[in-house]
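The records we work with from here on pair a chain with its fold. Here is one such record, which you should read through line by line:
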Amino acid sequence: MAKEHVYFIGIGGIGMSALARYFKLQGYRVSGSDGTASQITKSLKKDSITVKIGHSKDNVPSNAAFVIYNRAIPVDNPELLAASKLQLPILPYAAVLGKLTEQYLTIAITGSHGKSTTTALAGLALTAGGLDPTVLVGTNLKEFGDKNIRCGRSPYLVLEADDFGAAFLDYSPFISIITNVDREHMDFYKTFARVKAAFLKFMARTREGGALILNRDDAVLYSMRAKITTIARAKNLRVIWYSTKHFSSGSAATASAVTAGAVSKIRSAMKIPGEHNVSNASAVYELARLLNINEKKIISALGSYHGSWRRMEYRGELKIARLVIISIYDDYAHHPTEIRATLDAFRKKYPHSPLVCVFQPHQAKRLKVLFREFVESFVDADILVLVPAYTVVGRDDVNSKFTSKRLATAIQKKYPGKNIFYLANPKDIKKTLEKIIVEKSELFSSKEPANLIMMGAGDVVKYTDLLI
């Protein structure tokens, strides 16, 4: 294996980098390329993985055992074309993961929101339970050495299953967890009916005799229960509905392990704020009990989690003269549902602290499709600063009617008393925030430190470094 070479086109993606590390740990030679340098590409280089910045036909090794690419890579990418000319085996990322899921007892965790946190918690719970899982997650965890992978020696694989591009339909899990179903990735699915159909197809991919662990509190998911029952009967699947609100003994085949008492223990143990995270942890509790892990070990594992990279991640402080100290956080929220949940969690945890949000919309098409929902998403922020949208190469067609500037105007119109600002150049973020905070000093008279959330799935994270 050590002599076999695997090449990754788009290696800097969070999922691709985890898979690259997996192959490296299995003894393969690994290299790849990405369009831009990032924290991820720098980290990969520290792991002795060769990374080229920029795509060129000369980067592709002629002796590669196979070439793996992200489906976001355009078909005319010079490295894809070069690999084809060299007649190398070319595989999409999801197809490779699909092959891995067949080789393990795979626990696939998906949903429109909450996948990374739930996967992280599941990995920690199975580890605490002595099951020694391999874990592939879409974020970096301190518990995994600030990486997005844990390589275990058992048959268990805990995997974050991506719903973008219906990638999860390549997977064959033994246990499937679904946190929720929402109007996400509409540039791909086009209609909400297709979103729901994809999740049903994913459930049907669950192996014969396996289990489905589903969120009873998600109205859309629960409305699909008749079709879910049909799938479960056809595949002999156990269906477990978890909830933080509805508790009943149910039948032996579907009874939930999450009781009101268990939810109370989970809520008390959790270090990360937000009811959505209590819900995510409840899914993991169900999983762990299904795998016969001791409750004390489950609760201890859930309580040991302090968050991950760009998920309500504390980064440092910003001091504005002697006026105020602001605690700075990075957060990956980029969908209206996620934004509301994150801001609500901050508001409830720090009820007396001023809340400032700097938001970078991710993908122009998402901003267009969900524009009205975005307008309603920032009610818990005392101050909102919007910066230009992060556009995704190959997926975006910018519409001048749906921009960050137009969003700022729409929110101001809907909420005339709100402090809404548009910042055309994010590099001016520190100077702009200093000016806003001085002008709005009455909001910062609280003895509690203010909180600033740098929010979005694009490159807004790099502007945090200008503040701390």
